[in-house]
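RETRY 2/3 - previous attempt timed out on the joint model. Re-submitting the same 972-residue input unchanged.
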Amino acid sequence: MKAMNRSKLITASAVLAVVGLAATALPAQAAEVGVTSTQIKLGMTVPMTGTASLGYNKIPGAAKAYFDYLNDNGGINGRKITLVVKDDRYVPTEAVSKTNELILKDKVMALLSPLGTANVKAVATSVNPARRGIPVLFVNTGFSGFADTKKYPTTYTVLPSYIMEAKIMGEYIKENFAGKKIGILYQDDDFGTDALAGFKTAGVNFAVKVPYPAGGQTAAAAAGWITKFKAAEADVVILFDVSSATSAMLGVAAQLKYAPQWMLGSVGGDATTIKLTGVPAGVLYNAIGFSPVPATTDMKDEYVKLFSDIYAKAVPGSAFDLNVLLGMNSAFMAAQALKAAGKNPTRKSLMAAIDSQGATFANAALVPLGYSKTSHVGLTGYWVGKYSPTGDLAPIGGSYVVYTTDSGSGPVVKSTYKRPAMPAKGLPN
Amino acid sequence: MKKVRLLSLLSVTALVTTVLVTAPTVANAAPACDGKSPIQSCVGVTSDGAPYAMQIPANFNGTVALFSHGYRPNVDVPVGIPGYGGYKITNTPEPVPNGDAAVAKYFFSQGVAIMGSGFARQGWNADSAIKTNSELISVFKKQFPKTTKVIAWGNSLGGFISQAMDEVYPELISAVGDMCMADNLEPELTMAGDFLWGLKVLFDPTIKGGNYSAGTAGLLESYADLGKVFTVLGKLQATMATGAWPDTSSATGKALQAAGVPSRSALLLVGLMAGVPTQSAHFDSISGPEGALKLTFPLAISPALAVLENGASAASLAVLATHDVELQAGGAIFDNTKTDYAARIEGERVIYNAALSGNTVIDALLGALSAANPGAPRAVGNPAAVSKMRALQLNTGKINVPTVLMTGVADPITPAGASQRLVDVYAEQYAAEKAAAIKAYQTTRTFKTPQNNLLMLWNTTPASYTKFDAAGSPITSTPAAQGTNHCNFTSAQYVLVAKSLVQASNTGKLPSGGALYTAVRKAGNLSVDKGIRFPWLKSYGNN
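RETRY 2/3 succeeded.
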């Protein structure tokens, strides 16, 4: 049996949809799903509970804080943004179930910042937002595959890909740790596979590679990981993992007084989250880290300052950290996209707005956005920093040196990107 | 962990409305009718020896609903074999699904007669059943000349037969209902065969898994296989938590065990490569017990338990249907010499990565199952037998009359992808009809929008449904969740299909719009969302 051509299917279903619309004689200006005269409804799935929720469970609160601020300042063309959040516990099958609820019961206009490579992939396969024409904005995963516009035509990445991150890490290693034995801890799925591909492109040879299955990041496992790194006499150990794995590793390392040169990937490198688990700040001291957005302690940065002020009022007592900054930044970008989508935004006009204007959206990142009519690539680089004695990531030498690259074989270069100034009051123009 | 009940195909006994008329002894004779009112019952035998039953209401309006029953084994199955133990071959007619009185009552209330054949042979019988059904329609029309419309509908293999009726005899049929419809024979048997082969090469190499001997010897081999399959599934169930391998495992399996690969991950991979759903009657792959396993259970264990529960049915079908079709085709029909199992699970490996224990373990398993491993010898089909199998009825998916599909999204026997294929094929057909209409408009200046002739009813699973006892063990004694198991429909869902078919038969149009949505909501656990999509059966490749 000949396999059916997917594009034909999509065309066919589009035809059906058009005919259906005509047949039911909908009003000429029928409202888009999730959009009323007073409200725009967005949906988010994220681990709010469970092992993997650590740190990431602050993202919805951060996004809501920005949307509440926006709503208090008039919303988007008079419409307030409502964010419906569902806990997927970082379980892909649950992400599918909760996303179905968001679409079928809550009737959201678009999905915002779903988290986790496996979860986003499971939803893409089983829920089919692409076939339904539902935008999936600014996914919280750096898996490079999600930028494939043929496979995921309605999905927009925002984080730099894991391949980009690994390539930039590799460049840093070549410049600073030539001849040293390098080890890596990585999640044994597409998250890790992407990273290994980037390191391979960068020409990094590992003395030891330690994979862990998702969900297997326990203290007992961490002791085993350390045994392997010790046996290989690794000088530099890269933790390309989730926060809970970084915490398990550094916590056990502190107990065992194991102290190689740590290099932390951005996914699991948020200091606030790590310290919350009881890892002493001193363990992080001098570890190398990477981030696309400014240091969260950098109150001279206009974005960090405004976002931290908004967050402090919205969620008093909660630390302003990398997850919060990224969550608010995605909400800010979503607001700009909705504004650019016109007075009566539709799912189509929302995506068209990102395609045509997304690359110029104001946002906190110090690296360029790659959106265009042919690209759904978000941020494209990192700056390199070191963790201070208090565990905060700060740029090496005091100023941000930003590197940019792609997910292919392109070179890693120093970026000359000039970040757009923040619009007045941090509201979309 | 409590024992998971190994499930069987739906029981096929006692499925019909009671028909007490004595059947004529001469084949192809006119039916014997009791002349009763308000419901007249008739029975008879078609020229191929297939018994049939008819029930005609006094207010008969000229429409008859012809129901085709699902797969029944073509052999008796000894008592004691899980799943099918005690089954006796039967050709009892089944005029409505499961003898559902509510369905019959609805038809009668509309003046619609019902009928069904028990068919001349059991097993995979599509080719003969189509002929039987067409003859039965003639018999009915001759007996009841008022007849103007025939609804063809059926469950499982009966759904396949009903679709075939539309493709082969569209002039006889006014509406079609394909419920929990089987796909074409080869993809169905490939799914079953893949699962059985995986069990064999990893967990028990003495499972024959096909290429059965002729005659009684072959029958005994298939019985032995049934026993072995259920034994190995039982062992896997017992070691689900520890990940230990059955003592019957192959050298390949033992090597994987030594390398630290949990048996549950191996079982899950076998299920995924065959296309067995990862939601089953009692395992939703979402829920976890309170406590330490709250997250680990759905992430690492539940998908394998779902495959175990579903696989019990898939493996049974593999043995019984393979034996049956080999008899018809004259040799081994399952051939996986060229199957790329890595490609088969490309989409799922990231989704079930934790349950599969990570990429390293996945790659080790795929390596063990690759054609390059002599320790996992591939099954070689008999080319002549394979050709003969492929010459059996092949449904293209073309839809000629209004058609209603209904299927469970986690049906382990006839996966949702079988219905998805028809949905996709019809989307192409509709696009072509639309293009033709546009072309015609250029000359006639009259545009006629093609009529939508397909209604897809997805029988969905609840958001979550696995239940746990106070000790945290999953409870498997409750009824199967909606959307799971084979043809696990309620009376209300069957009646909705019946109503849709009667409307389509009367008006030529399927229900739509608000009335449809209201009816769907009332029937419960159904969705008509066009965005729902399931992969086709694995042997079709990447769809």
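Residues 293-329 of chain B form the longest helix (37 residues). Closing ticket.
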